[in-house]
From TrEMBL:
Pathway: Metabolic intermediate metabolism; (R)-mevalonate degradation; (S)-3-hydroxy-3-methylglutaryl-CoA from (R)-mevalonate: step 1/1. This is 3-hydroxy-3-methylglutaryl coenzyme A reductase. It catalyses: (R)-mevalonate + 2 NAD(+) + CoA = (3S)-3-hydroxy-3-methylglutaryl-CoA + 2 NADH + 2 H(+). Residues 359-389 form a coiled coil. Keywords: Coiled coil, NAD, Oxidoreductase. Belongs to the HMG-CoA reductase family. One of its GO terms (molecular function) is hydroxymethylglutaryl-CoA reductase (NADH) activity. The keyword NAD applies.
Length: 410
């Protein structure tokens, strides 16, 4: 019998329908495009693409696509970006010297570390010859360190520059090649594993210097700095602060076809860099300026993998500027993280987060009402005026509006 994964997506859908599962319509061309990206594909999940209109980074204005289902995220990023633009924007810098890989080998009694050490430059040269196309694109194996030998295992840490790509597949191929070369080296019995590490690398730093008047004055700026201090010592606050940063970061990662899981994992480790979990950003007040900075491990790419193949992603690159480099995109991502962070801190330090959130939430709630566009607009206005945002509030307002309209007609 043909296995589920061997079937065409239409046949998989037919099977599910036979089992009584109702499936949404999908364009055949879309279904086939998606079938190329994953396994057992039967449909799609749609998310909106929103735009941040003027993110000023290193004196260049960007249109930034963000993908998210959370209503306030794009609004928050726009708000933060607007505050930055009033203060000469963000200064950012990306260091793209490579991503890590690990090769772990089983040693035997004949193992001599100094001999292996002497072999490593040769091994780098061999790998760079074999993977010459990566070298031609400006990347390649940069460094290998013998990290540890346990008497049984040898740990090698390899640094590979993936050029403009994320590099996961390429790095894994390189590591397996190198592990193969080493498996017959004197004193080595076999390879235990060879795979990239998502440990933080490819760091981007972004910073802003804002006139305190931009956030409503020195008192508010000091509250923002205090919130930031709390995030240095209190993990309950730090993780929420970082969630706000990742709202922005993940939005741009998704829009540009980058691996959200890899960056989330690396940022989680990085937040523990000082031995306990902390905020990834820092805000201070100095000489009537609110200073904000962030450093994030952003092993992202602008080419390779599914990035070039996906039309939806390519549209987003057209917004960013078709020829954007990976370093430039990483600068934009860190700047957006900082923008989302500032917008959240500013709201928390002043009127609280719920006022803005609920206004946007109202839009989602009224969208699901069975009502005319005009009625929906009126319901939204009443929800916001009364500061009442539940589904039942919306239904009550709708009933009241209809009652009033009927009364005025009679
Ligand atoms: C909500 O998605 C994100 C915030 O909770 C972030 C924060 O508290 O800093 C608003």
């Amino acid at each position: 019998m043909t296995k589920f994964y061997e079937l065409s997506p239409e046949k998989r859908r037919a099977l599910l329908s036979q089992e009584g599962i109702e499936l949404d319509e999908i364009e055949p061309t879309v279904l086939h495009e998606l079938d190329q990206l994953s396994e057992n594909v039967i449909g799609q999940l749609r998310l909106p693409v929103g735009v941040v209109q003027n993110l000023l980074v290193n004196n260049k204005s960007y249109l930034v696509p963000m993908v998210t289902e959370e209503p306030s995220v794009v609004a928050a990023a726009n708000h933060g970006a607007n505050l930055f633009a009033q203060n000469h924007g963000v200064k950012a810098h990306s260091q793209r010297d490579g991503i890590y890989g690990q090769i772990v080998l089983q040693e035997n009694s004949g193992f001599v570390q100094a001999n292996l050490q002497r072999e490593l430059p040769n091994l780098i040269a061999k790998a760079n010859t074999k993977f010459h196309s990566l070298v031609a694109h400006g990347g390649g194996v940069r460094q290998i360190d013998v990290q540890e030998t346990t008497g049984q295992l040898v740990f090698l840490r390899v640094l590979v520059d993936p050029a403009e790509s994320m590099g996961a597949n390429r790095v894994n191929s390189i590591l397996e090649f190198m592990a193969g070369e080493l498996s017959s080296f004197p004193g080595i019995s076999c390879k235990l594993f060879a795979i990239l590490s998502n440990y933080p690398s490819q760091f981007t730093e972004a910073k802003v210097e804002l006139d305190v008047a931009t956030v409503g004055g020195v008192a508010t700026a000091k509250r923002i700095a205090l919130l930031s201090q709390i995030g240095e010592v209190d993990p309950y606050r730090a993780v929420t602060n970082n969630k706000g940063i990742m709202n922005g970061v993940d939005g741009v990662l998704l829009a540009t076809g980058n691996d959200v899981r890899a960056i989330e994992a690396a940022c989680g480790v990085w937040a523990n860099n000082k031995g306990h979990y902390q905020s990834l950003s820092k805000w201070t007040v100095e000489n009537d300026k609110l200073l904000g900075k962030i450093a994030l491990p952003l092993a992202i790419g602008t080419v390779g993998g599914s990035i070039s193949a996906r039309k939806d992603v390519q549209q987003n690159f057209r917004l960013l500027g078709k020829h954007i480099s990976s370093a430039e995109l990483a600068n934009v991502i860190a700047a957006i993280g900082l923008a989302n962070n500032l917008a959240a801190l500013l709201a928390i330090a002043t009127k609280g987060i719920q006022a803005g959130h609920m206004k946007l939430q109202a839009r989602n709630i009224v969208a699901n009402l069975e009502a005319t566009a005009e009625e929906k607009e009126q319901v939204k206005e009443r929800m916001s005026a009364a500061n009442k945002y539940s589904v039942s509030d919306a239904k009550c307002f709708l009933a009241k509006i209809r009652e009033e309209n009927n009364a005025s007609r009679n």
